[in-house]
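Researcher: Here's the sequence for the chain we discussed earlier.
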Amino acid sequence: MVMQTPAQIEFENLTATPELRGAIDQHLSELEERFGRATAGRIVVRGPGDRHQTGGQYQVSIRLALPEGREVNVGRTPKEDERYSDLTFAVDNAFKRARRQLQDQVRLLRGQTKHHEGGAVGTVVRIDPSGAFGFLETADGHEVYFNCNSVVEGRSDIAVGTRVSYVEESGEKGPQASTVKILGKHKLRT
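Model: Thanks. This is the structure I predict for it:
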């Protein structure tokens, strides 16, 4: 994927070392080799700065423009996740999330959208501390966002390790689960 317009890379509240630039260039090259569909891109790496709301975390946002008006958009660093105080982790994790979204968008562009009759089965792997949303791990190992309002019955019973069936849809920021149904009352041990 040679982007039609070279990716813009910006650094805020930190000095861009040759190692950091090299790591970002390497991640971009891997995305280009693997998917070949982005038309433009913008990467912003923010240092912890003075604002107490970042909690000493690095924030990496990635936006890739794709054909047919689609895009990959990785932003929001999870609050209170101390791993994001490590710059290498923050960059690697942001590109890992971008790679998943790009993979899903390329499937949609190729007409290989997942349609699961009767719903797919997954396992709840994370729930936001607010209890408003979480993530499921699918059978093929990728994560899918779900809003707790999408849980059909037993919303109060949903917890990490819960097996669920769901319908996967394309949301504004990538794949998301709707019509989430708890399978039995058994939870996997983690």
